[in-house]
């Protein structure tokens, strides 16, 4: 029987010893370890490089964002804050970033918050499953005005008596005062409010007359006027005399009558209330206002801006010393360069500028052409065209006034406080025969010193001057005609600051303005 032979037996027999020898052989172990360490070191170095690239990108991203929000948050920045931030990133050289910008702002503050992200491709960390790193950056900047000075200019002309306009205006102004004075909750008063009512006149009142210099033709009333050149600048110098409106009866100027109603009230009715933080005083003035007279918007605006100009600081300091203004307002009106001060005018009208009247300069002050003998009281009139004196008691013409050297010229203010223009001319010159002078006195002595067009020009000029200084002007055309709307639109610092209101919408306009001021409490 033939035996089969297993040819694999020798191979099986020698396999085990060779495998054991291979396992016991230590040649090449260090090389493997070194290779493993090299791979680990390469990975660690690569990770460090990726991290350095990430950190460099993150730093650049944060630096760009910080500069952007600081520029955008500045209250002097005229461009849209979000657009400013985007522009900074666009010019930074960064690409493929994700940017989110949030802007909060009111009249007294602006806060810009931004966040950005940017991906960077990983060169080495992708070996561990990390394909990209995201660099985050976040920043916030805020500029806030700490002190607020407000002038509120209120129309009290005759047309405000129609359609409940004066009542609606009072309600709106009272609500506005309450809202803005809420900002004064704290140890220091931050908000001062001046109320400037106007019709054909602005009554400076006894308070301002005590610290501003008014011309001295008379002291019976305190209404003022300004020259056209005065509307080209914002300041009113307390030491430079402001011209008073004469004490005369404009309404009865063409009637043959003695003095009746003064063109400017002799009381403090409707007088300016300057630099107040007293809600009761402010409400008291607002609630006392009634509708009467013509419209001189430019006069109201001139005083409103003047009470915000730093030239008025000495006047305010005097009122503090007299106890009429809160001592926290020392130093106001602040300089236009103060970073944390906001100056605001709210100007409203329901009409348009009309003519403004006063006694002509040649008949307004000083000695008149009418003489009185102090002993007898008899009068005589000087006739300029004849260089003679007319004696009224006997109708004689003489070279000297009755009473001779003892005769005294009657001051013009005394005559205007006694007669209408027609009666003054008639009593002293009708029978004298100097007809040129008679007509001058009757028809030209009471003059229109500013017509509607001049008043519009004055208003535009003072608004331009105020806007140039940084004063923020809000305007409200309250059921006003087209010409009134046009000057209100011109005066507003921005189109958004102009309101066209009807009826109770005036409350919404004032509330909108107040809400802008009061969006956030002032921060110490």
Layout of helices and strands:
Blueprint: H1 9-24, H2 29-73, H3 81-90, E1 97-106, E2 109-121, E3 132-144, E4 147-155, H4 165-181, E5 191-198, H5 205-209, E6 224-225, E7 243-244, E8 273-276, H6 279-288, H7 297-306, H8 313-321, E9 341-349, E10 356-359, H9 361-364, E11 367-372, E12 379-383, E13 388-391, E14 396-398, E15 408-411, H10 412-416, H11 421-429, H12 435-444, E16 446-450, H13 452-469, E17 472-478, H14 482-491, E18 498-501, H15 505-517
Parallel strand pairs: 4-5, 4-9, 9-17, 17-18
Antiparallel strand pairs: 1-2, 2-3, 5-8, 6-7, 10-16, 11-12, 11-15, 12-13, 13-14
Helix pairs in contact: 2-3, 4-6, 4-15, 7-13, 11-12
Question: Tags for this entry?
Answer:
about 525 residues; Rossmann fold; 3 domains; alpha+beta; disordered C terminus; disordered N terminus; 15 helices; 18 strands; six-stranded mixed β-sheet; single chain
Characterise this structure.
By secondary structure, this protein is α+β, with helices and mostly antiparallel strands. It has 3 domains: 29-144, no CATH class; 147-358 and 449-517, 3-Layer(aba) Sandwich (Rossmann fold); 361-444, no CATH class. Helix content is 36%, strand content 21%. It has a 6-stranded mixed sheet, sandwiched between helices. A 5-stranded antiparallel sheet has the order 14-13-12-11-15. Strands 1-2-3 form a 3-stranded antiparallel sheet. A hairpin with a 4-residue loop joins strand 12 and strand 13. The longest helix has 45 residues, at 29-73. The relative contact order is 0.12. Residues 1-14 and 519-524 have low confidence and may be disordered.
